[in-house]
Amino acid sequence: MAACGRVRLFLLIVSVSFCVCRSAGDKIPNGNANPLPNRQPHPAVAQYPAAGNAGPGAAVSQSRRAAGWKLAEEEACREDLTRLCPKHTWNNNLAVLECLQDRKEDTEIAPACNHLLWNYKFNLTTDPKFESVAVEVCKTTIPEIKECAEEERGKGYLVSCLVDHRGNITEYQCHQYITKMTTIIYSDYRLICGFMDKCREDINALRCGSINTGEKDIHSQGEVIACLEKGLVNEAEEQSQRYVIKDECKKAILRVAELSSDDFHLDRYLYFSCRDDRERFCENTQAGEGRVYKCLFNHKFEEAMSEKCRDALTTRQKLIAQDYKVSYSLAKACKADLRKYRCNMDTNLPRAREARLSYLLLCLESAVHRGRTVSGECQGEMLDYRRMLMEDFSLSPEIVIFFLVYLKCSLLQTLIQEADPGSDYRIDRALNEACESVIQTACKHIRSGDPMILSCLMEHLYTEKMVEDCEHRLLELQYFISRDWKLDPILYRKCQGDAARLCHTHSWNETSEMMPPGAVFSCLYRHAYRTEEQGRRLSRDCKVEVQRILHQRALDVKLDPDLQKRCMTDLGKWCSEKTDPGQELECLQDHLEDLGQDCRDVVGNLTELESEDIQIEALLIRACEPVIQSHCHEVADNQIDSGDLMECLIQNKHQKEMNEKCAVGVTHFQLVQMKDFRFSYKFKMACKEDVLKLCPNIKKKVDVVICLSTTVRNDTLQDAKEQRVALKCRKQLRVEELEMSEDIRLEPELYDACKQDISRLCPNVAFGNAQVIECLKDNKKQLTQVCHQKIFKLQEFEMMDPELDYQLMRVCKQMIKRFCTESDAKSMLQCLKQNKNSELMDPKCKQMITKRQITQNTDYRLNPVLRKACKADIPKFCQNILNKASDGNELEGQVIACLKLKYADQRLSMDCEDQIRVILQESALDYRLDPQLQMHCTEEISRLCAEEAAAQEQTGQVEECLKVNLLKIKHDSCKKEVLNILKESKADIFVDPVLHTACALDIKHHCAAILPGRGRQMSCLMEALGDKRVRLQPECKKRLQDRIDMWSYAAKVAPAEGFSDLAMQVMISPSKNYILFMIALCVCVLFMVGLLCGRITKRVTRELKDR
Hints:
By secondary structure, this protein is mainly α. The chain has 64 helices and no strands. Helix 10 packs across helix 12, helix 28 crosses helix 29 and helix 52 crosses helix 58.
């Protein structure tokens, strides 16, 4: 072994210490004892080789350098000693040397004293007699260290070996002896064996100081080493170096740093730079084992820390980043683990020397992530240095190079991997301090340092418990963690097997161009939602973690690397003003059709994934928590969502627990679903085969729903033997149709057609609950043509399938349960109409039923039952009206009015007559159900029957009022409508509710056997009125007499239009028998006259023939 190669510097230190102790004659530990019994002339100042020139110390007499010689007695240093050093130290040369070396920066000592001290130290280090001192002081330690015991004696190798193994020395005197000696050498780089020879050229090239004694303060030569260290650090950080330090000097610099790692006194430049800071921050920290270094590192960014000390500490940290052995505590604590997991630097690895610390950290972290055992002391040191890297990115030279040269922040990903803050949030001191209050309140149930703390913080992101500073720090860290799945320790632990099996990943600290870290998570979540039939699924534990990460990433687009990368341009173009939580993704979904292809694909895939598991939308789930707890807790607790939770939220969208944020979020998701049927998971799974077969090339959900609904309706109307749409699809199709009916925006074609009308007629009406649609229906006469047609078509569909009438089903929900549990969906309105006048009917539902009846009576096409019953009668009797009709426009009750007249003439088919009778009975009670009457008599009703029309409950009083005031009606069109009503009432007493109510008992007593319809019961009452033997109820008798007067007036004003009309008037006339008798008498008279005239003419003709 070469003497200088083993750091002979420490041998010299040992020798110096021994000589000093020898001269002092005191105990070694405190510098007051000499361990050797024999005293000899002190060799320290006997001669001055390599001193350059003789100083005042050369004049010191040989006699004074004999036994008992003291530095304090030298004239060159007497003045400085008296001024700077306590008197009790004067008898100890080592104490004097330490006192003068460790003086304050602003205190100068005489040049002559400088040279004396220099020559004293140098001669101490070159005296071979100090080996014998080491043998004496360390006689117990040397046999324990096999390597040192085998060293050849007399060449200075023994002390050098003891210095190298000082960490293993347990003998107190020996350890103190070695430690004390080191302080001498580190005051001047020239005393280190071979250092000056190896670094002479580099010192001059970098202008780190002169090597000639006298040109620079000898005892500040620690600055030279500091200068070289900075040069080494700068070389690592700069890509194009102006000067490259020689390898042998680099090794010498790092070796000096390693040897000074134990005690900060040994790094002279740092010691002088941080002396005051040490007293300020680390006063109670004992020197040794790097404790002072670590203490100063922890206070590096304190405001009170001096800039000079901070710079010196940074240089020291950068050396640690290049060589982990520069950290005494890390090298000691992790020595066994580094050897165990073979983490020692391998020169064959494609990593530069400056990355050594980061490589070793990654190697040990990889072992931890794989579940291997790493000692607690080593993990504690790793935690400290990972935190150190997080606090100051400049300590990672590879990041500094790329950041300064290429400005690539992606290199920061390397720093995050090295520091691995995902495993312990405390590594990121800024995050730890910013989030302390949140952790104490929201995450106090999780032990400190647990990786789940970060997950807990993410779960509370954008909640009331989160503070702004913590939010920013958390997102900064998550930005990088989201780009490398391995940085989430829980995810890595649960999914490393699945990743290796399905995604062909490598070990924790290895990367692959074929499968970079950012792509692994994409691979995992693609397998997370596979069905059993598709195979190759994730394990349950891994799937849970993947879902957790997806839920967290949905909070911010920056946490989804693929989304941010592909959608950067579109985010700037469409969503630059959408900066609130969750708004960016919503904005991209709103502009899905406008996005670039790459962005559209990734947003579409994410939306499709959300449709299956809406809990990915963490902000939405958070907002909807009250509704979920009240109405959807059962589906929310399911491990597999499959779209059930969103369906539940939609169904309970208008519950009292629903808040505005949740309602807006649910509606937004519904609107997004309209863009692509794949975004509705349950619909997609139920109908994908039918869509491919029946609706190919159709993508928008609304178009797919229309396509499939049309197919189902056609198959039903044609009584097809087998439905082309599968049963499971038909069921889900019904769900989708019901959901679409709730909000006009869910039907884009209708919404686009009516946008202007909504703004003009319904500006203050909120979307949802079908309120806008209802508003448009109420203002139907004022709609634009295109909107009017769309609304008419919508009403036509709703009347055919009342379950699609959202408002009706919502308002009458309880009444349907009470009266129509056995009715199917298509006959729901019919059932409600039949029970409309029940005492148990809810008033709001009754009002809604009336509105639907009014709508139905405006056009026969809106009444499916009537349309079916009268399909033959309508074209037969009302063809002229049909010829004028146009699609999408109501006939304003003209066809129904036509059928009413034919009903009075008793010319309708039985089925049609039954339906018209029902309409007549309903409209007789409520004039609003007769569109023709309402259209022509609006003014007369306001003038003559305002009080009756204002009544909340309509019982036929308005029609009765018009009948009574028939003579006062001015408008002929209104008068005609009233006369038609009178005419219709002759045909059936049931269409005259006032008369029917007054004569109900009489009908029961006198006409019970008479079938209703065709005027039969009315004729029965008329006969009873004319029969003096029959006594009718006074009210009935009065009402009948009034009707007779009205009919008489009607006959005068509106004579019979035909023979059938005349026959009807005769049949219902009170003088029917008289009229019929007179008609019969006339016929008989005519017959007799004809008979007589015939005989006379026959006789005359015979007489003429006889002539």
